[in-house]
Amino acid sequence: MYAANSLVVMYAKCRDIIGARTLFDRMNERNDVVSWNSIISAYSIDRQCVEAFKLFSDMQKTVVGANTCTFVAALQACENSSFKKPGMEIHAAILKPSPVLDAYVANALVAMYVRFKLHPCFAASGRLGYLLNGKEIHAYAMKNGLDSNLKIGNTHIDMYSKCCCVAYVGLVFYKMLNKDLISWTTVIAACAQNNCHIEVLKLLREAQVEGMEVDAMMIGSTLLACSGLKCLSHAKEVHGYALKRGLSGLMLQNMIVDVYGSVGILIMRLECLSRKNVKI
Questions:
Q1: Which sequence spans correspond to the domains of the chain?
Q2: How far apart are CA 57 and CA 47, in angstroms?
Q3: Which keywords does the record carry (predicted)?
């Protein structure tokens, strides 16, 4: 049992969630709290929050009693305010056996509720352009170790972008330990919208090196940068890449037309328009 639990933890730390789950499902006996804690923690670390909650719920239906590690792992899966309902259900489950809280569980609860508040606060600061308020919330998140949260990090980037503070956009992005598609899309869009055109091209190449799937939104932001640079070679390269990857859509097609118009290539623009079946 101990060896199996150790292997589940090892697979989780190696980001092999499939291996961890396969091993867990093959265990003949799952009546040990360590087994459940290991797999719930694995999904929580991998940010597969819904599955972490499902496993926590499944555990509640067994004879295995949850302990401090169980509750902390489940609470850590509550990444933002969209998980408020399951978070409050976990809180209720914690209080059911005893109203006295373990210090680790209490800290995890506080951190969860702070995350619920930080996410909308950052979004509001960005929408309203309140840079000072955004910086204060960011400082609070850093002080409490919450800036490592992926979704909070992504919200930081979006907030600084909307406040036209590009220096902080890059600072937050490169300090993030984990980045997902939203992280890359948001930082590239932020640089494009704030006229950091060279940085956009650099970030796109970095995303490709990291093996990130480049989507139509990233290409659209990159085309915006090409337009700003008035560089035909970059525009053609990005256009070719989009065609090769089969990326399309009316918005992307419009941007391709616009970028060729901005670099003064009338023939290419007319050709793109004809492909869209637009009357001139």
A1: 1-77, 79-96+109-178, 179-280
A2: 17
A3: Repeat
